[in-house]
Design brief:
The chain is α+β, with helices and mostly antiparallel strands. Helices cover about 30% and strands about 20% of the residues. It has helices spanning about 40-45, 65-80, 115-120, 180-200, 240-260, 270-285, 335-350, 355-365, 365-375, 430-440, 440-445; strands at about 5, 10, 15-20, 35, 50-55, 95-100, 105-110, 155-165, 170-175, 235-240, 295-300, 320-325, 380, 400-405, 410-415, 425-430. It has a 6-stranded mixed β-sheet with strand order 3-7-8-9-5-14. The chain is globular, with a radius of gyration of 22 Å.
C-alpha cells in the first residue's frame, strides 16, 4: 500500500487499492502478431507520454468505483483494435512490437482530497502521483524497469484515481516509441466512446472508426532514440485568452509591416511560438551575462496532412517531423525574421511527397548530428484542436485535461484552455530562466 508519504517535501495523497492486467477482448490475428517499428518510431525518444483528465462527480454511478467495471471492459475492447498497445517490445533499441496480447496495466487509487480542493491548491508537479508507478516521461518506480531480462516494455499503463467527493482522474502513460500525440488522443477518445456505448442504455453512437496501422518492412537501426537530457528544469502553466492572442496577432502584423516584411495572416500557434521563444531566449541571454548563444525553436509537426500523398488522420504511430527555425543572432528574434524563416520551412515541409521520402530525409542525418540539433533548440508541440476537452466516458466532459511531469528542458506544449477560451501552454525551462520569463512584461501582457 502506498499511503500518505512525504515525497520531495510534498504530501503524497494517493493509495493504490488494486492492480491488474487488462488484455484485448479478442486475440490478435496471426498475420498482425508482429508490428514493425518505422524509422521515426525507432528514432523517437524512449519515454512515456503522460496525460490526465479530471471529471467531477455527476451522480450517474452510485459510487466512483462502479465506473471502473465499464472502464475495464471498454479498455479490453479498445485494445483489440489498438493491438500493439497490448504487446511488448525490447527495453533497448526496439525494432518491433510483439503483439502477444499480454495486456495493459490497470491500477486504481484512492485520493485523500476532493477534486475541487486539489485543482485549487495543486502545482504542476502534483499531477505526477496520478500515474501508474509514477510513469511520467523518463521517470518510473516500476520494480522491473532496470531489469533487462524481464518481459520487455509494457507500452500502456492506466491509473483511475478516485477522489473523496466521487470525482475521478483518468491518467494514462503511453510509450512514445509506438505513438505520437495525435495517436494518443485518438486512442483515449476511442476508449471513452466505447465506454459510453457500454454504459448507455440508448445506443446513440456507433463504435469508433478503426485506427490505421501502417505495415513496414523490418529494419533495425540499433538505436534507442534521442535522450531528453538530465538538466534540472521546472514546468509552469500559462493561459493565453483568445482576446489576448488576437492582440498579439495585431502586434505581429504591425511590427512586420513597419519592417517592410508584412505578415498578414499569422496563426495563433505561430505568434505564441514567437512570443515564448523570444522570452525564453532573452531570459537565457540575461542569465548568460548578456551573451547571446545561437539557438532555434523546433516545432514538432504532425505530417499526416502535410505530405503530398496524405495519410489517414487516424494513422497510429509516430508521424511527426521537427521544423527548425534557427536564430544566429539577436536581430533574428524580430518577428519579420522569425516569420520569414518559419514560412520557408513550412513550404519545404509541404513539398515532402510521402512517408518514405520523410524517412529518406531523416536517414541522411547522423545520430550524432541529430542529437546535437535536438539538444541545441527549444522544442514546441501543439495539441490544440484535438478536442481533449470532449473526451467523455459517459460522466460528462473533463474540467481539466493536461500533460504531467517536467518536460524536456527548454520546451513548450500548447493545449486548448480548460474553458475553451484560448490556449494553455506548459513551459519547461531551467529554474533561473523561468524566473525571468515569469516576470517578462511582454509575455505577461498577453497571458492571465
Amino acid at each position: 500500500m502506498i499511503g500518505n508519504l512525504i515525497r520531495s517535501g510534498r504530501r503524497q495523497l494517493h493509495t493504490i487499492i488494486s492492480k491488474e492486467i487488462i488484455k484485448p477482448s479478442s486475440p490478435t490475428p496471426s498475420h498482425l502478431k508482429t508490428h514493425n517499428l518505422s524509422f521515426i518510431d525507432q528514432a523517437t525518444i524512449s519515454t512515456f507520454v503522460p496525460f490526465v483528465t479530471f471529471y467531477p462527480n455527476t451522480g450517474i454511478y452510485p459510487s466512483s468505483h462502479d465506473k471502473t467495471l465499464d472502464l475495464k471492459k471498454s479498455l479490453s475492447q479498445t485494445l483489440t483494435k489498438y493491438y500493439p498497445f497490448a504487446g511488448r517490445f525490447a527495453k533497448l533499441a526496439p525494432s518491433f512490437v510483439d503483439c502477444n496480447d499480454q495486456g495493459a496495466e490497470f491500477l486504481e487509487a484512492s485520493i485523500d482530497s476532493s477534486l475541487s480542493d486539489f485543482l485549487k491548491t495543486s502545482q504542476h508537479q502534483d499531477l505526477d502521483q496520478f500515474f501508474p508507478h509514477g510513469l511520467v516521461n523518463q521517470r518510473s518506480n516500476r520494480p522491473d524497469d532496470d531489469d533487462l531480462q524481464s518481459n520487455g516494455v509494457i507500452p500502456l499503463a492506466v491509473q483511475v484515481n478516485h477522489f473523496e467527493c466521487g470525482g475521478v482522474a483518468v491518467a494514462m502513460s503511453l510509450s512514445h516509441k509506438i505513438a505520437d500525440g495525435n495517436s494518443f488522443v485518438h486512442f483515449l477518445s476511442d476508449w471513452a466512446k466505447t465506454t459510453q456505448l457500454l454504459s448507455s442504455r440508448e445506443q446513440k453512437h456507433g463504435l469508433p472508426d478503426d485506427p490505421h496501422f501502417i505495415p513496414y518492412e523490418y529494419m533495425n537501426l540499433n538505436y534507442n532514440g534521442f535522450t531528453l537530457g538530465s538538466d534540472e528544469c521546472v514546468t509552469k502553466s500559462f493561459i493565453f485568452p483568445k482576446a489576448k492572442i488576437n492582440e498579439l496577432k495585431l502586434k505581429v502584423k504591425a511590427m512586420t509591416a513597419e519592417a517592410g516584411q508584412p505578415i498578414t495572416d499569422p496563426t495563433r500557434i505561430e505568434v505564441l511560438n514567437w512570443l515564448l521563444y523570444n522570452s525564453a531566449v532573452t531570459a537565457a541571454t540575461k542569465n548568460n551575462s548578456g551573451c547571446f548563444k545561437p539557438t532555434g525553436v523546433g516545432q514538432l509537426t504532425n505530417m499526416r496532412s502535410r505530405f503530398m500523398e496524405k495519410l489517414p488522420e487516424k494513422s497510429i504511430g509516430n508521424y511527426f517531423m521537427i521544423m527548425d527555425t534557427l536564430t544566429h543572432n539577436e536581430s533574428e528574434l524580430k518577428p519579420e525574421s522569425f516569420f520569414s524563416e518559419l514560412r520557408k520551412q513550412k513550404k519545404m515541409f509541404q513539398g515532402i511527397r510521402d512517408i518514405q521520402t520523410a524517412f529518406d530525409i531523416l536517414s541522411g542525418i547522423t545520430v550524432k548530428e541529430g542529437q546535437r540539433r535536438f539538444d541545441s533548440v527549444y522544442l514546441s508541440t501543439s495539441l490544440c484542436g484535438y478536442s481533449t476537452y470532449e473526451i467523455d466516458f459517459g460522466w460528462g466532459k473533463p474540467v481539466k485535461a493536461t500533460m504531467a511531469g517536467d518536460l524536456r528542458k527548454n520546451s513548450f506544449i500548447m493545449m486548448d484552455a480548460p474553458d475553451g477560451d484560448g490556449i494553455e501552454v506548459l513551459v519547461c525551462l531551467g529554474k533561473q530562466d523561468l524566473a525571468v520569463v515569469q516576470s517578462d512584461p511582454e509575455l505577461l501582457a498577453f497571458s492571465n
